[in-house]
Amino acid sequence: MVEIEVKLRIKDIGPITNKIINQGAKLEKERFFEENTLYDFPSHLLYKKRQALRLRKINKKTFFAFKGTPQKSRKFKIREEYETEVKNEKQLKKILKSIGLSPVFNYKKHRTVYRKKRLKICLDETPVGNFIELEGERGEIVKVAKALGFTKKEFIKLDYIQLLEKQEKKS
Q: Which end of the chain is more exposed for a tag (fewer CB within 10 A), N or C?
């Protein structure tokens, strides 16, 4: 599957939530906590290719995803993504360790998910600030972003790892 997304930095969750609902989006998932751990080889092969293996924990469920190298795009983050639910997290971690992968990065956030037809709208509360993540078709992303008061100039293609690393360099 190909994922097309952008992030938009926001100050306050409350007012933007009302705007999202006023655009006809429906709440899909109430606010929840998630923990994300990225895995890589000692050589950082995946990082060098701008790829990622992510283990995501949400409550008692665990999901494992591969994210491919981002495609060229000026405004959007476009990449292949394959994700599956994991039944036995401990066994998966043993498999990853056995093939030489280890945890290299961990981040946590709160997320609320809305949906407007095929567009996924996530409100993310992270250590580097609050963001709207719009995922879907380019035209829909632009249309909804504009309706929420944003321009293409405000689109962020960086992932949360890059945003966290950027903030650490500032500190």
A: C
